[in-house]
């Protein structure tokens, strides 16, 4: 058995990984249809990062889906509908926002979330908000609370800003 698991053997854990299937992706709400919740990524970035609260959807498959809005200092925006798989520390884009507030659906592959990536916001979402201790949040309310507080209370490391 691996340390920290729930009494399952290594074989059982590996079998669960092999048997995992992603649930059908729900249609995302139109970009910007809910409250925009900002989150901190790095003091080295002038960009602002937001999650559309109406889009936040923890799935039974362990994937946290959300609409991400990234705003440049000059006001340009990038909008994407994405999912984070907490257990494997991976992220996937499903769709990209268009100027007319519709979606261009082009699901991409699962990619490993790296701490020192150019796209560090995925690491911040995984570690600080949606996957505390590597486990997915259980509800929309839990995710919204974590975003509003500046971090999930069960995440590892230092206390969240504002506590």
Overview of the molecule:
- By secondary structure, the protein is α+β, with helices and mostly antiparallel strands.
- The protein has one domain (31-149): Lipocalin.
- The chain contains 3 helices and 7 strands; from the N terminus they run H-E-E-E-E-E-E-E-H-H.
- Strand 3 (63-71) and strand 4 (77-85) form a beta hairpin.
**Percent helix range:** 10-25%
Low-confidence stretches: 1-5, 157-163
Q: Main beta sheet, described? A: 7 strands, antiparallel
C-alpha Rg (nearest Å): 16 Å
| SSE string | HEEEEEEEHH
CATH architecture classification name: Beta Barrel
Question: What is the overall shape?
Answer: globular
The oligomerization state is single chain
* Count of structural domains: 1
Measured between the Cα atoms of the first and last residue, the distance is 36 Å
Mean of all residue-level pLDDT scores: 83
Q: What is the SS-derived class?
A: alpha+beta
Counting DSSP E segments of at least 2 residues, the number of strands comes to: 7
CATH topology: Lipocalin
CATH class: Mainly Beta
Beta-strand content estimate: 25-35%
Q: Give me the number of helical elements.
A: 3
Describe this structure in a few short sentences.
This protein is α+β, with helices and mostly antiparallel strands. It contains three helices and seven strands, in the order αβββββββαα.
Characteristics of this structure?
disordered N terminus, Lipocalin, 7-stranded antiparallel β-sheet, 163 residues, single chain, disordered C terminus, alpha+beta
């Amino acid at each position: 058995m691996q340390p920290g698991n729930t009494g399952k053997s290594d074989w059982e854990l590996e079998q669960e990984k092999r048997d995992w299937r992603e649930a059908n992706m729900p249609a995302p709400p139109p970009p910007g249809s809910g409250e925009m919740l900002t989150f901190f990524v790095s003091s080295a970035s002038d960009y602002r990062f937001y999650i559309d609260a109406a889009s936040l959807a923890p799935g039974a498959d362990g994937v946290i889906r959300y609409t991400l809005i990234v705003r440049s200092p000059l006001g340009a925006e990038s909008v994407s509908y994405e999912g984070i798989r907490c257990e494997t520390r991976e992220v996937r884009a499903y769709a990209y926002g268009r100027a007319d507030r519709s979606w261009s659906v082009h699901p991409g592959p699962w990619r490993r979330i790296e701490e020192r990536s150019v796209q560090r916001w995925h690491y911040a979402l995984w570690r600080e908000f949606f996957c505390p201790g590597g486990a997915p949040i259980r509800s929309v309310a839990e995710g919204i609370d974590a975003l509003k507080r500046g971090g999930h209370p069960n995440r590892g490391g230092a206390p969240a800003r504002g506590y």
